[in-house]
Amino acid sequence: MTKAKNKSHFVGVRLTEEQKKALYTLQKTSDLSKTDILLRGLEILSEYYTLGLDQPPLNQELKKLEEEAIQHLHALKQIKRREDSVKHMIQELREVDEIIDDYDGEKSALIQILLKIQEKNHWLPKPALLWVSERLNIPMSQILHIATFYKSFSLEPKGENLVRVCLGTACHVRSGPKILEAAEQFLGIKAGETTPDMKFTLESVNCLGCCALGPVMMINNEYHGKLLPSQVPDILENYRVGEIAMTPEQQKLTPLAQRPTNPQQR
Amino acid sequence: MTTFTSGKDLEQYQKNLQKQRDTKKTCISICSGTGCHAYASEKVVSAFEDQLKKQNLTAMVDMKRTGCHGFCEKGPIVVIHPHNYCYVKVKPEDVSDIITSTIKQGKPVERLLYEDPETGKKIMLETDIPFYKNQTRLIFGNNRKIDPKSIDDYIALDGYKALTKTLTKMTPQQVLDEVKKANLRGRGGGGFPTGRKWETTKNATTEPKYVIVNCDEGDPGAYMDRSLMEGNPHSVIEGLIIGAYAIGAHEGFIYVRQEYPLAVENTENAIQQAEEYGLLGKNILGSGFDFTITVHRGAGAFVSGESSALMSAIEGKVGEPRPKYIHTAVSGVWNKPTCLNNVETWANVPFIINNGAQWFAGMGTPNSTGTKIFSLVGNVNNTGLVEVPMGITLREIIYNIGGGIPKGKHLKAVQTGGPSGGCIPEKYLDMPVDFDELYNIGSMMGSGGMIVMDEDTCMVDIARYFVNFLSSESCGKCIPCREGLRQMSRILNDISAGKALEEDIELLEELSEVVQMSALCALGQSAPNPVLSTLKYFHDEYEAHLHGECPAKVCKALIDYTIDPLKCKGCGLCIKSCPVEAITGGKKGAHTIDTDVCIKCGNCLDTCKFKAVQKTTGKHRENPKKLVTMEKR
What we know:
The complex is a heterodimer.
Chain A: H1 2-6, E1 9-10, E2 13-14, H2 17-29, H3 34-51, H4 56-102, H5 110-121, H6 126-136, H7 140-149, E3 161-166, H8 169-173, H9 176-187, E4 200-205, E5 217-219, E6 222-224, H10 232-241, H11 248-252, H12 254-257
Parallel strand pairs in A: 3-4
Antiparallel strand pairs in A: 1-2, 3-5, 5-6
Chain B: H1 7-20, E1 26-31, H2 34-38, H3 41-54, E2 61-66, E3 78-81, E4 85-87, H4 95-105, E5 114-115, E6 122-123, H5 130-133, H6 151-156, H7 161-169, H8 172-182, H9 194-203, E7 210-215, H10 224-231, H11 233-247, E8 251-257, H12 261-276, E9 292-298, H13 307-314, E10 338-342, H14 343-355, H15 357-361, E11 371-378, E12 384-389, H16 394-401, E13 411-416, E14 422-425, H17 435-440, E15 449-454, H18 459-473, H19 479-496, H20 502-518, H21 522-526, H22 529-537, H23 539-546, E16 559-563, H24 573-577, E17 583-584, E18 592-593, H25 603-607, E19 613-617
Parallel strand pairs in B: 1-2, 7-8, 7-10, 8-9, 11-15
Antiparallel strand pairs in B: 1-3, 3-4, 5-6, 11-12, 13-14, 13-15, 16-19, 17-18
């Protein structure tokens, strides 16, 4: 035991601590003799030299190969991701199909169909709109006319939390605009914009229909009434931290929001 | 599930229901309208459920989620029957007290009762609270008694009785005559006689005919249609079926704003229940009359509340109005005769049929009969929904029911009729409220929004607010509305920024008249009302803005925040609240505000405990350029 531990040289070669340990275990576990190990070592060494692995060009070649392998791996991952997103899209289109079938493919139900898609995804992805256009035989221009006319529709992905500040008359005379300002200042965005981290979308709306509580701010499905501007940051901070996160149903939908497809830009 | 095949079936069922209902059994009814919901009434409900279960009282006590009670200011509201104790602002923590005192011993919980702010007395019953006592609750009355999700609740309170009477004892012509005699006028804004509208559609020769409930309540500051549709959907459906019978329509639509998810849910649920009971569908109550209803959700466009726009939205198109050379009553949805009425109008119909036209016409004024629901909001003590007979004065509504203006401030104006209405100054407070009187002083009934404004409201800012609102909601189809409103908005923005000239106001007036005369639909035609009425009654405020002064100290460009060094105690609260670090000053010394840095958010004013922060106005006259507004965009 002590012999093996103290051994710092092996047939004249100086060993590092790790090599020492390896050698020790090798001797313990295998029935190879000292000479056998030495011969095997020499064999490997000679192979190393015959292959020319010590030469710089080959070394580079190896590195290159390694890099290529990594690249291929990335490409594979990307293909997998695309495959997933295509699968997702197909799934999504299936859902669109179901919605359309619910309305028996009636052309007059276009707005109701778009509302359902909007509800599911929180926005109107282009593939879905194209599919609606195809199925109902309504030109895309007409669908975009409707999608841009009505306020409920969005052609851009929205943030995880939808913050709506009411600027209806009742809220206006009870300083609703100050609430909006406070929210804008806290989030660092203007009304109608989404924070870069996709956490919040801020909107100003004309009436949430609970005028007795003015000024009102609605976050997702929660109403916050009789607000003071100074309360706004604390309330919003709670949502950023995620204490009051979205419902599981809403959470399921968030991956969609990350996909950058803006029908207007394409 | 019972399907009624004759009127007698339904009557029998009704009698059985009324017999079965134990009026002495304790029932906790909790308001689940949107207002109370926002105050977490759902948590109160689950607290009750938990406690009742724990104490093994579930069998002895009924629980009910009701529609909106209307007194949203004091929500969540809980009423305990049979004592009818009314508790306001109930929190989940209060539940155990209510159970020990009221439910077990029948005693009221004093601290939860409504306290009359004038006398300081506690009021036990909901009906004795001044807010309710001074109202006439006809259409809205059942809201607090029924669970909107239960058709039996509605039937037990004589629901669908008018429908039975209509289908078994009356001809369509008789129904129409009754509505005409009652002189019912459209509650959605215009005040067009409902009977005449029905008659036009009835007499139109094209088939099929359609009837529509307009619940696209987009007016900011109004939410009574929402509360009716959420709280008592069956009353609207009953009215619609009766109307369809009179007109000869077999298909109806209920157009509900998508922003009102609960209204959509309750309406769809009510339709399904009515179908199961055979009150909708084929051969209703064995009369041979067929009728179906479809719910159509609006996708959020203010202009879609206009009748022709709403109809094209139902067709699945963009909700833009069209010229009405031919009325929609003759050529509406898919160019077929279509009768569209507001939620409240339809809800009035069963009452007229049950009680007769004469009874109905006995309420209100000769030309405006019946009652009207107003949403009393803004700077008033008791905000909420109030139903009053037509012809009552504004003073009665605001002071007797609304309890006056908070913080002892003065009333400046009342805004009625939503963005299409006008601002009524204090001097008209004793004027009776009906369709014609309001129109005569430059406002209108509208759908019933009544926004009270105190002395801290700037009338120029209000006019600017409405014009900006309408300009963004204009569909852009006709030029007067699209361009006219845009220019008006620019002028008003200039006025409130202190950059306008005398002639700008003249131009504003001229533009208003042009838009009023030439716009395509009611949105554009009535858009200048807020401007014209404020110009008429509050001209001095416009003048003051021309001289760089905002009397109400609202318009940001014309005000400054300063700190009174005598009052400032140097506590440093304002320094912490300032988002732009505009306030400086050491401990215990008076602070100062750097007006160049200040963004006028008002945080310091709100946080100061010593009233040292003040708003000042004046000295803000920039050199105005001539007709800034008409320069190129």
